[in-house]
Amino acid sequence: MVTQSSTGHAAAEGSRLPFRLWTPEEREASMREALAHCRPGEDVWIFGYGSLIWRPEFEYRERRLATLRGHHRALCLWSRVNRGTPESPGLVFGLDRGGSCRGVVYRLAAADVPRYFPALWSREMSTGAYLPRWLSCSTDEGPVRALVFVMNRANPAYIPTLPEPELVAIVRRASGKYGPCIDYVLQTAEALAAAGIHDRRLARLSRVLAHERHTLPET
Asked: Of 25, 89, 92, 149, which is least surrounded by CB within 10 A?
C-alpha cells in the first residue's frame, strides 16, 4: 500500500500493484449476494456520487439529492482500464471512510433490476474494488435504503489521499478506455455543481486542472 510518506512515487507504485479483472462468474455471484437483501417486487434505490450522476446508464422512476453519512468522496482508486493503463494508472472516485457525501439517489423499478443490474455490476465491480452495501441515505423526502458502492480498503487499487500537486499530475497524465482522466474529474465537478452539490475539495481541484489543462503535465 502506498502511504503519504511515499506519495512522491505514488504513480510508479500504482503501476506495479497486482491487477486482475473479475470474471463474469465473480460479478454474477457478487450481484446475486447483494440482491439477496432485497424484497421481491420492491423498487431499488442506487446512490450515485461520481460518474453515476452524469452518466447513470439506466432508466429510473425518481431522482433525489441525498446525503450519505460515514463516507466521503475521494480520488482514492487507481484506474488501469477506464481512465488509465496498467503502466500509467489514473484515479477515479471512491467512497472512503469518514465524513459525509452529498450525491443523488435513483429509484429503479423492481421489474427493471434484471435488465440494468448486470451492466451496472460490469461497470462498478470490474475488479472488485468496491463493496456493495445497503445503507441509509437522507433526502428531503425522508431516508431511503440505497445500494452504495463503498471503497474496499483491502483492495490493492486503494490509495489514501495524495497531496494536491501529485494528484493533479496523475489526473492530467492518465488516459484509458473511456478517455482522459482529467475529463472524468472535470465532468464530475460540473455535474455536482449543476445539481447544486458543493464539494469544496473537488471544486478547488477542478479549478487547478482547468487552469493548467493546456500545459504539459510533469513527468
From this structure: 25
Q: Is residue 137, in this structure, part of any structural domain at all?
A: yes
Number of domains composing the chain: 1
Question: Strand, coil or helix: what is 78?
Answer: strand
CA angle, 106 as apex, 121 and 75 as ends, to 5°?
60
The SS3 of residue 151 is strand
Active site residues: 124
For residue 8, is it within any domain? Answer: no
Tell me if 99 is assigned to some domain. yes
First to last CA, the chain: 22
**What's the pLDDT tens digit per position in 136-174?**
999 999 999 999 999 999 999 999 989 999 999 999 999
Where is 26: in which H helix or E strand?
helix 24-35
**Taking the mean position of all CA atoms in its chain, how far away is CA 141?**
25
CA distances from 34 to 134, 135, 153 (A): 8, 12, 19
CATH, residue 190? 3.10.490.10
Domain that residue 92 falls in: 19-212
